[in-house]
Amino acid sequence: MPLLPFKTVLLISLLLSAATLASKAQSAADDPSITCTVAKGSLTDAIQTLGKAANIQIIFERSLLDRYMVASKTFTEVQLSVAIHQLLAPTKLQLVIRDGKFLIGPAASPEKGVSAVGSATLSGYVADASSGERLVGVTIGIKGAATTTNNYGYFSITIPAGLADIRISMVGYQTLIDTLFLQQNIHRTFTVNRQSIVLDDIEITASASPTIQQRTQMGHINLSIEQIQSAPRFMGEADVLKTVQLLPGVQQGSEGTSALLVRGGSPDQNMFLLDGTPLYNPSHLLGIFSTFNTSTLKNVDLYKGAFPARFGGRLSSVLDITTKDGNLNELHGDFSIGSMASQFTLEGPLKKGKTSFVLSARRTYADLIVRPFMRNMEEDVDKFAVFFHDINIKLHHKFSDDDRVFFSVYSGRDYFRARTGYESGFDYGNAPEGWYSRSQDDFHIGWGNHTGTVRWNHVFGPKLFANVSLMGSQYRFHTAAASETSNPDNHMTSDNELTSGIRDFGGKIDFDYRPHPNHAVKAGVGLINHRFTPGSSSLSYDMGRSEAPVNVSLSTVLHGNEINVYAEDEWQLSPKASVNLGLHGSLFATAGKTYAYAQPRISGRILLPGDVAFKVGYAQMAQYLHLLSNNTISLPTDLWVPATSRVKPQLAQQLSVGFARSVAHNTVELSVEGYYKNMDNVIEYKEGELYFATAGRDWEHKVTSGNGRAFGVEFFVHKKVGRLNGWAGYTWAKTDRKIKEVNFDRRFPYKYDRRHEFKALAIYKLSKGIHISGSWVYQSATPFTLVLGEYEGISDPAPTYGTRVVGNERVPLVNSRNNVRLEDYHRLDISIDFVKIKRNGNQRIWNFSVYNVYNHQNPFTYYPDGGFVGGRSYQELTRVTLLPILPSLSYILKF
Amino acid sequence: MIFQKKQILLYTLVFALYGFISGCTDTIDFYQGERRSAIVLNSLLNTDSIVYARLTWMNKPGEMFYDWAPDEIKDAEVSLYENGDFVEHLAPVAIGDTIYNAHYYKSTHAVRQGQTYQLVAKLPDGQQVSAEGWTPAQPSFSIGKATWVPSPSNPRRDETQIVLQLNDPAGEHNYYRIRMFTYSEGYVERWSQRITWVGPGKQGTSFFEDEFQPQVFIDDELFNGQSVELILRCENMLFENSKMEVTALTQESYRYLRNNAFANESVNNVITEPIPVFTNVMNGLGFVGGVAVREQPIEVDRTGAP
């Protein structure tokens, strides 16, 4: 065997030596020597002390280390790994160095809580780092799996045990990236920092949330409160429902109102949930403002199709609104004054880190402005009020990481009162000297919602979360007129009152169970007792003198009990396919009749080539409540009534199909959805019934029912993040009704059947101090019922007498319900915020908004008119426009 | 500077409030184009009575309000058929004086209960309209003595309450119209009284609505086949020169007359939907249907009256 040349041997030796030295140097860098003293105390503190001394981050799960205590110990020129081993010696923990990282986890022998199959569950809450507010819809991504926090900020995810990088992200918050040694189940509250929208140069960073093509749910849009508050304001007020109206598939009702019409549904087919409690007629001032004070809101989710099984009770949409829990750490708040209303919100800790509160109030002050002008009126108006107010109160107490209790109250009310007096003396007519007559009329009308909710969140284990709610909700309309007249001879009084409304008491329990990384199960049961008061009136009068007072009262009260049970499973079949299977069962018992329906809910997603998701969803819905309403505008007198043996529950089936994809690094979501919805037993007043009627016992005989259809396609582009964000949507839709005894039993277009609709909202942060936003709405003409002509009618079989044709009235020719479409609707709204951060950290905003910038005369209604000029008659059609250009100014102070 | 800010705020508030409460109206070109007119045929076939039919042209909206003169069709041939068999041609007749008159087509035969009748009208230019209806039985009813009662909504005013005993035939769905008339001396002219039905089976409040109407329509759904006492109120104090009229209607007559009664109320009301009025005339507008009219004088109980 020939020997290697000497030079070669030397070279190899040098290289080996260099490699060994380098290796030793590298090893020393990875496991440095340290000199430090750890104090007597928890193992956690001791490990952290070692980490600081070595300037190395040691990864561990605090809950594992906190259970051990260590004595004081000094290490001198000892390698970090050796020091850690010494501290861990008496414990059941071990150190693992992997890829240069120091990880402390359970020792090899499994102890209780460690998964025997090699998986572990990470569960807990995600909260705002500053306020402690738990966040809804936060995405937690770990080891290729992902989940989101539920409405209570809770999440649970089970993954293979071991080292894992976790990524927690939400729009508007800095993404949190952490590494966990997940060897056993861990329960933890993660905190994330808010992106400072004002201090930064406003780049809301891209979200790492699952792309739209990864989500199974269809017909769901999450709105951030920032976007709602940045959208153009109406009369100085940010309004949730008006922002929701800018979404495709959602229409406003009459001009200016907050009523929602979702995918061809009617206004009563929307479920408004405020912290899980249903709210009826959630609007003020005849629907112009919504009842939701945006300063108190945390999250808004709209579902307009493919409803998850946990929702039920309405046919067309669910608007799930969550309010803030309150800042657990510091006192904060905001105050605003606008053209119509002022509000303040205050939140903070009652006991730091444990108990928090939110208090908010809003009131309009039109009466304060008008009152001075009433002094000049002929009649003496001594009491005058016209306003609405909202009050929100919420208390939150954290008993432990596993138990939290919430108590929330909402009260909103519209009110009008005018009390007038009139007095005449002896100079009135032929009255004798000293005679007088005093009269006073007092009229008031008011309506409002009141809700109260108590919720208890409990974590049963790493995979099971429960929420128990007790709730009450009431909508009440009340009006009264009283008059009093007195003179030297007599004293007369009369009182007339009317009350109507609905009151709910109920409770429910919801479970959130994550048994496996591929399954997210939700199940629950709820019970609601409804009490309907379609009409309760009383009348009393006292004519004085010798006549006996008269008291008459009439009351109609109806009861109904509703039970809802549901279960759903979000099942990840593969990385490219998932399905949500659910079943919602409901039962409604009312006088002499019980209805029960099983409502399947199915939606699925499959990823196609090109990273495009194909989605399909099917949902059946049952609604046991009807709203007796006229067909033109929503009024507070509209009455909620139950399904009865004669008036059946409303039922709907909806099929949705669509494609979705995100682009531009997941900052822009594109989707197109088609839907077909069939609605049965939708009701209307019979033609000719009086619309202001309060429902007595015969209300069932005044209504008729039938079928409704709606179908359409929605295109949606949504940019949630960035200096410029907002959305644009186009909808092609068609909806009609076929109702017995209406329109000669023929099918007719629904009142809000708008064929084309385009809406866009843009929010742009021009600079640190100037934010602008604008929205534009275009809707093709809505159908109206118009009189096309008139002709002679007949009411008697023979001319009854002499000279003229008597009783033969004019008959207006209306060939069909909603027979003409005249003018398109379009409107541009703009808003500009001047923002200033003061030295003390307070934020001051001046907002200037303009509604209907180019003053387009949008139609509210039409009516035919005519006259007789120069011997010839003429006819014309008059358009009524409700809302011309409306500028507004508001001032907001946040502290 | 503060003063300026306050001024700006005040002006904005006032301007916004003004804009909010001031609706705007404008007229648009909709009725300018000529619309093709339609033939209107009307006739109510009263059991055991001769037939009066009327032919007119449709008008533009509003025309009849200002100039009550629907264009009459006087030169048509109007034929009456009973159960499909020709009965007679109706004779044109002008009713009224030389200034105010109306043109009718009149039969010589009376229509009989339970038969189906068809009217066919042919114009000289060949246009033809037709419609048919059947004639119901006379209603069976009696009325009690009327009494004066204070108005619930205005105790300073008296109303008249009358109990109507209506005997509804069993086994069929029946419809009724109830009216009250006050006759001038000699029972030649009459004017309609506004009435309301207050019970039983009906409960409501007059808080928002003026429940008094010139006529009350009722079907027998709540009292089918029974003899029922309906409590009616007239908004005025009635005396002896008044009558109650009860008309039995066919389902089609009920639909038409009821629709017609409500339709005019809804035309200029911005918050109510205009109502399509039922028509059964082929190739035209109007209505032909059966009714059976019966009247009974109202006797007023003036016991205790001043």
Automatic annotation (TrEMBL), chain A:
Superkingdom of source: Bacteria
Annotated ranges, domain TonB-dependent receptor plug: 237-314
Pfam families from the UniProt entry: CarbopepD_reg_2, Plug
Membrane-topology annotation of the record: Multi-pass membrane protein
GO terms classed as biological process: siderophore transmembrane transport
Swiss-Prot/TrEMBL keywords: Cell outer membrane, Membrane, Receptor, Signal, Transmembrane, Transmembrane beta strand, Transport
InterPro entries: Beta-barrel_TonB_sf, CarboxyPept-like_regulatory, Plug_dom, Plug_dom_sf, TonB-dep_rcpt-like
Residue ranges crossing the lipid bilayer per the database entry: none
One GO molecular-function entry: siderophore uptake transmembrane transporter activity
One GO term describing the cellular component: cell outer membrane
Subcellular location: Cell outer membrane
Residues spanning the signal sequence: 1-28
Keyword Signal recorded: yes
Keyword Ribonucleoprotein attached: no
Family recorded in the similarity comment: Belongs to the TonB-dependent receptor family.
Name of this chain's protein: Outer membrane receptor proteins, mostly Fe transport
UniProtKB/TrEMBL annotation, chain B:
Superkingdom field: Bacteria
InterPro entries (UniProt xref): DUF4249
Full protein name: DUF4249 domain-containing protein
